[in-house]
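Duplicate of #3305? Posting structure anyway:
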């Protein structure tokens, strides 16, 4: 009994050295036998939307194939089984989940509102057409079905509009001329008349910079965005709230994005959206090597930083979103972008983008291709689904600075806790060999009890109010230690839906706050530390 008490006191003393030594230069690692994450809790570095996590739904037909593999099946907007219980429950679990409807074929899609003068026919394979398919059409009865699902699931919808109508080829290879918005405006009016709630309307897909398939100059694009804003203002006149205007939904090009921002005035473009496929083509055999390489992951920080620099320099109210991110283009790579290993890339992206004031991050896809949060045929959640759901439930909107003093194989991010006291820490271990014991220390933080008592700490855990220093931990690991597994373990238990298609409960393990956070090889840890008082989180 006495020996156990002594161990607790010694453990607390080591913990206290970390807690109180936020700016000290003492070799605390040697003292504690572990490494440290330093969280600056005095002020926020950025803020996200409350519904930061977003996912996409695409338009591809079943015969969309890449590298000889057809991975889309019946998992897109025109053919998705909207009555599937798992699909419904997966979306409802977020309460709400933003869904961005769009993708490559959106700029070849017309809407069956009766004004296009063309029959409403589906996409048909055509190797001579852009992206390998003919023009397609969204029937209004399907739009009704989709909206019934959105309303039932509580999803918040961003709809990507066709931005290529009316364009003509230009001498420099781009497409020019003003956007013919007749069909789009009719579709927006129809949507409003039906009472369907749209969170935002986005213009075009991957037409910025050098474009993918086609490109449009920033000057013309700005004029088209302004026209979209006018359409929304007039159509939603008298409504208590108006949808967001988003653009351009393309790859970041500094000069092009700078011009777009400079030529849209305050309130004309609410959100500037960019896409991320920084791992290269899905056929690449070195995807896992890239994902596990800290230097490679760091490379995307410049995109977030440069975009924020443009917005700040312009003094605009426009905010940044990642409008589509699948990591590896051309539908991803089976057993990589739909397996446990991809959570390293995905959660690192969520953490990194949020540090640069990105307000929302849309994952390609909710379902469809080889990078879906859900399995394309069974809708059973892939590991990244649970990673996304834990982020959504645990990571608040206030972003804090967090640095790790050990190996670069540990990635760390910190936010104020969501709807709770304290902070939530995300730790990602890219090493398959090392287990790390990690202490958490801070600039500008106290335990809750210390704050209440007006001093640095008021009790020793285990001798009194020990529960107040208990934290909640969520450890994610791949089944059987296989990085390419499509099953994930939470605190050692496999996560899977039940017979009713219900999403499993995500229950933490309770850990005494004086102990370091143990981060095993190839694992991910969310740690909610309610006793961590951070002034930035007030």
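Output from current build:
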């Amino acid at each position: 009994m006495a020996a156990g008490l002594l161990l607790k006191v010694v453990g607390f003393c080591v913990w206290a050295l970390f807690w109180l030594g936020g700016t000290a230069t003492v070799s605390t690692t040697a003292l504690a036998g572990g490494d440290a994450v330093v969280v600056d809790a005095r002020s926020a570095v950025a803020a996200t939307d409350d519904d930061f996590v977003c996912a996409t739904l695409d338009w591809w037909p079943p015969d969309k194939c890449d590298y000889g593999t057809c991975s889309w099946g019946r998992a897109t907007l025109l053919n998705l089984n909207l009555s599937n219980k798992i699909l419904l429950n997966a979306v409802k679990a977020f309460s709400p989940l933003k869904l961005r409807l769009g993708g490559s074929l959106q700029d070849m899609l017309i809407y069956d509102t009766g004004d296009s003068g063309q029959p409403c026919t589906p996409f048909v394979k055509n190797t001579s057409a852009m992206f390998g398919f003919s023009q397609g059409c969204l029937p209004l009865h399907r739009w009704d079905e989709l909206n019934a699902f959105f309303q039932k699931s509580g999803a918040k919808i961003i709809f990507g509009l066709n931005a290529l109508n009316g364009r003509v080829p230009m001498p420099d290879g781009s497409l020019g001329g003003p956007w013919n918005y007749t069909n789009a405006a009719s579709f927006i009016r129809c949507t409003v008349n039906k009472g369907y709630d749209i969170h935002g309307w986005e213009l075009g897909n991957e037409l910025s910079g050098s474009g993918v398939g086609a490109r449009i100059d920033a000057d013309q694009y700005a004029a088209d965005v302004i026209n979209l804003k006018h359409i929304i203002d007039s159509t939603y006149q008298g409504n208590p709230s108006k949808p967001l205007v988003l653009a351009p939904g393309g790859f970041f090009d500094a000069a092009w994005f700078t011009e777009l921002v400079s030529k849209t005035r305050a309130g004309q473009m609410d959100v500037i959206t960019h896409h991320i496929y920084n791992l290269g083509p899905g056929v690449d055999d070195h995807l896992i090597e890239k994902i596990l390489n800290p230097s490679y992951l760091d490379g995307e920080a410049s995109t977030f930083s440069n975009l924020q620099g443009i917005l700040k320099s312009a003094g605009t109210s426009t905010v940044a979103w990642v409008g589509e991110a699948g990591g590896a283009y051309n539908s991803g790579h089976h057993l990589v972008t739909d397996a446990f290993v991809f959570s390293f890339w995905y959660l690192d992206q969520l953490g990194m983008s949020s540090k640069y004031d990105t307000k929302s991050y849309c994952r390609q896809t909710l379902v469809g291709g080889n990078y879906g949060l859900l399995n394309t045929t069974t809708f059973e959640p892939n590991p990244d689904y649970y990673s996304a759901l834990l982020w959504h439930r645990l990571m608040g909107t206030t972003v804090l600075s967090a640095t790790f003093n050990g190996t670069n194989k540990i990635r760390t991010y910190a936010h104020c806790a969501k709807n709770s006291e304290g902070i939530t820490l995300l730790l990602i271990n890219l090493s398959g060999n090392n287990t790390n014991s990690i202490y958490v220390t801070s600039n500008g933080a106290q335990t809750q009890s210390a704050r209440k008592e007006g001093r640095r700490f008021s009790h020793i855990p285990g001798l009194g109010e020990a529960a107040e220093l208990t934290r909640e931990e969520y450890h994610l690991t791949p089944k059987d230690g296989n990085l390419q597994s499509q099953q994930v373990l939470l605190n050692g238990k496999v996560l899977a839906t039940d017979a009713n298609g219900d999403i499993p409960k995500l229950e933490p393990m309770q850990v005494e706050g004086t102990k370091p956070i143990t981060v095993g090889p190839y694992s991910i840890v969310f740690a909610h530390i309610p006793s961590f008082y951070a002034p930035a989180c007030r």
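Confirmed duplicate; merging threads. The longest helix spans residues 2-20. The two ends are 40 Å apart (CA to CA).
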